Amino acid sequence: MTVTLTATATCTAGTARVVPGTPEKPGLPQPVNRRLLAERAGFLTTLVQQLAGGLLASVWTERHLDQLAAGVDSEGRRLPAKGWMVLRRLGWTPPVPAGLRVPDRVLRAVGEETARALRLAVHRRAVTDAIVASWPADPRRRTAHDWVRLREHLPAGIDNATIRNRTRQIAAFAARHGRLPDGFTELEDPPTIPVQVLLAAADRQLVRCERIDANRARLWVQLPTVPAPVSYRDWSWHDITVTVPPTVAATAKLCTPTLRLREGKVRLDLPFETTVEAAPLSGHRRAIGADWGYNTLLTAVVAEPGPDGTVIASGRALRFDAAGVSRKLDRLRQHRETLQTKVTHLERLAAGRRSGLDLAAAAKFDLLRQEHRRVCARIRNLGRALAWSAARWLIDQAHATGATVVYLEDLTSMEAPGSSRSWNRRLSGATRGVLADAVRHLGAREHVAVVTVPARGTSSGCPRCGNKLRHVQAPDNHKPANPWALCACGLSADRDFSAAQRIAARGLAGQHRTTRNRAGQASVRQTVDVPVRRAKTPTPRPAIRPAASRDKHRPTPSRPRRPARRAQGFTPAALATAGSRPALNGAVQRPAGRTPQNLTVQVPGTTASHTFSSNHTRTRHRVRWAVLGRGFHHHVHSTPLLQRSGTRGGRTPGSQRIA
User: How many structural domains are present in the chain?
Assistant: First the structure.
């Protein structure tokens, strides 16, 4: 069985040429600089955003959402899958201003943007209507009966985090207006259409994408040459050369990209497809169970099914410690909140003044917003890099240990009640969602199955006997805390390591019940706990040497004398030129203690110092493992890989690689 993996590579447009004719019959091409290309691409993105925003505002009513949710048109025919075709079937067309000439394929992109926003609104409205229909007496604390009523109205697959956020939104509306909302459109305003163009909604009359070689691709696209085109003469074909990132294989199929602008550059989100063999979901003889953490992002263990229905786990913990990066993300989030507070304060000042802000305040306002966008981009990029680095490390560990499946805990239905807002903010900023998607993608590419198991009880239960664990500060400090786990059966282990064993046991015990959802994600829905045993590994013992003879019947054997170590800077030349011992002045009494030392050059006649500084030039701090590729960041520490068990990706069997 083969599956098609779809990924997206972000590219920047390089050289470009404007063609008077068509791609089949091009005229004399003329080069276009990057500034002019970005200006014309901005004409197209602005036009699409304005038309899609106007169309979305006109259909943002309960009646239109009811028509879209019904799934059929006025004649009873089933609505198609493509969004722009759905809007045309329902008769919803974008309002094009008089005198403006817009090609039909551009209107398709407008319809696709609007349809995606409306379909998301239909899903959110179903959740909102279910919560309003089963509104409890106390929305902050639902009873068991309230949860049963709510689950009867909710669509399938809604997690608790979504329910909590929607409940808070409805409660805030009720606090302002003194009543519940009459509909979803009253609760929320139309969303903002992003400044981009979904070129995949068009056909070859607007866009064409082809590969030139392994490192370059060519994009043909029609762009307006003026902000408001009034005829088709204001639209011209542009030949844009794109450099394909090295992550895109030469055999991958390139799809139609999405065009957008960023910092004056034309950016292309280029999707590409790769066909791979699907990994089996059952029949695994070796697995890796991984537990999420905040400081230690991943803690994994290798496990195998035992002969008597148990699971045998290795005693070696595999860790991906990203505490340094987590602290950096915390500082960036605090800086972002500070900037947002200042921006909000200036917005209130501008709203309270008739003349608005003065020039100095307006310049400060623009600077704060620019800095806020920059910090947000930094947080996104650092979190994404951290997630993909951890996913790459986990899949490499699976190959190094010979595991064919990776089991993760499903945290979509888990919450942390009683936690502070700061802790919830730190957990929400953790890149678990991106990390899970990255592990699934890389696992499918490397023929490693990735399966989620139920998360409830993985950290609170003992992997050996199943009883409730006692969480303490350390093995020798039984103060209640989270790092260490103790059990009456004799278990004493790290909490994350204990949870990783339990996750691996649940996955191996329930692997024959693994199913896939509509998105293709594999999971074990039924909780099956089996005892976990420790793998018996031989303990290496030192070689037994005969005891040294201490009798006096023969001469004592001579031993080589250890050479005296002289610190750098205490060379004979330095000692010869050091001069004599400085004489003490009789007027000033030397304090008690040794004679003052010269830590750079030892003066003859003085006592040698126990500690001294060297004279060599200090070099900047270099982390050896980061240089070798152990982590993408200097403050990421991970367990290095062991000997490989086979061949992967064209590498030599049994070769070593640093994680």
Answer: 2
